[in-house]
Description:
The complex is a heterodimer. By secondary structure, chain A is α/β, with parallel strands linked by helices.
Amino acid sequence: MSKLLIADDDVELCALLRTYLGAEGFDVHTVHDGLQALERAMAETFDLVILDIMMPGQDGLEVLKQLRRRQLTPVLMLTARGEDSDSITGLELGADDYLAKPCNPQVLVARIRAILRRAEPPAESVPSSQLSVGDLSLNRQSRKLYKNSAPVELTSTEFSVIEVLLREAGAVVSKDQLSRAALGRELGRYDRALDMHISNLRHKLGPLADGSERIVTVRGSGYQYVIE
Amino acid sequence: MFRQRLFWKLFLSFWLALLLFAIGVLYAASAYLDATRQRYDGPNNRERGDPTFNVAQAAADAGLAELQNWARHADDSELVPMLVLNAQEKDILGRDPSSRALARLAYNLKNYNEDKTSGRPSRRQPIVLPDGQQYWLVPDFQSATLSRLISRPRVVATQLILATLIGAAVCLALAAYLTFPLRRLREASVAYGSGDFSHRVAPTLGSRRDEIVDLAQSLDTMAERIDALIAAQRGLLRDVSHELRSPLARVQVAVGLARQRVGNQADEELTRIDAEMDKLNELIGRIIDFSRLDAGLQQARHDELRLEQIVADVVDDVRIEAEAKGCNIETRAPAHAVCKGDAALLASAIENVLRNALRHSPAGGQILVALEGSEAQWTITIADQGPGIPEALHAKVFEPFFRVDDHRNPQGGIGLGLAITRQALSAHGGSIELKNRSTGGLEVSLHLPATLEKNA
């Protein structure tokens, strides 16, 4: 049973969500302010942390920032509609995805499942668990990425994105395709989630040995991992 | 009394102007006469090299006719007539000498004769013709009348023009001083008329103190109050909308719970509740979007965009609904339309206008979406075959919550679409324009500068 931590200052909403998500088969824990959220997330191991941005104490973005310094637990941000800058900042800080609140709880469950699915190591029957492209090598079993044999710290979503790109290295992967494969959902029209994950990956992986971009944006069609 | 400063300013300045003018005229007249007299009554005119005398003598050297010519010319160009008299008191041009002029002549003759008998050099000399006839130049101050002045406008033309110009400059400065605050007031009221209540007049008028400044101050106070009221109203709207979200979020989860428990028995009702809540959520979202744009909280992003792609995406979104109504959307756009801006904002601006067009189109109507322009400015024109909007309401439709059909039309929007569109465009430095087509229907043009400046 997946263990979730929900941090939201709306106590009643948390209670409702606990019941609802409980019935969907999740083990839900709730906290109502930023400091508690950080404390709990550090002290225990959760499969997913759901962070509301608007919280007393420390806001969700601050909690995420502190959390990402220590661990890579998947994080889903709840943002207010129209606050695009919040969702972009959240993704930059390493959130796995975001969802505008209020939302249909069925959408929330779908989003949670998508994130949990990519955080899970694949079944034993994965044909080749090792994948190497240039200076990168990737282990599907342990969901770890190595650059020149040194591990690179990635969130599970970032790992899923780079996994798809490396599998298709040299070919253009469309945004839709990448979003479905890595985020587990269709991309909204002006959704910046994928762009932000790519940007984080570029930052963490650095350029190729010759200084050129590792992942190039192909205008109007998608992204491509460049083979040296 | 001194509260009415403008009154006293006007009174004193007019009074002062009149006084200065009168003094100026009197001074100029007396200065002119003094100068003429001095020129004549000074020491020996020949020794002094009196130009009048020398010119007259030079004319006389050429004969009587030439001297008469000179006298005629001098009479035309001088205010004080210069008589040319012989010893018999006859003027060379037949003018009538005044008694004072004759006295002057007698005095001159007396001096001349005395000097001659005593052998002294003469202070005054006659003009001498080649045949020995003597003429005396005698200015006739008594005959310098107003009618002479009026019949010789060129005599005072230079001074008159100069006086007029100086007068004009002074009056211009005065008029500008009195009216410049009125211009500021006008600018302010125009700004208020277009909904910008941040304009203040009094601080721009410096240390000036009069009725106009009082007016400016009361106008500023009024604008401040209106500004505060509008801000409070919009703030209230925004706060209420934010507050509505929390219960809405709870209801959504509660409905989810209901669905988990009795989903099969009440599926239809729960689906309906979900749909209505989505509408409510959308409505609240639009109010918040508008508030954010209105308060200038949302800055337009500055991405490089393909405008033709955005237009095509929006049209694709609306097409399904259009087809349900039997309407056709025709798109005309160039293959490349690059601009900088915020894709989501622009798409919502275009979508609002397009949905309005569809809403007011008759069944089976035609909607034209045209993207035209160049790198400098793009224009998206959306034309429908609906009833159009009465000219008088064109400015009003951009007000939030204004609707042309006042009764609650269930199909109608909430009156935020065009308000959001206008805000979205102005965040890009663009503008929106409405026009009723001659063939019926409304044409909405969205103007977008391609290389826009970020709206501070």
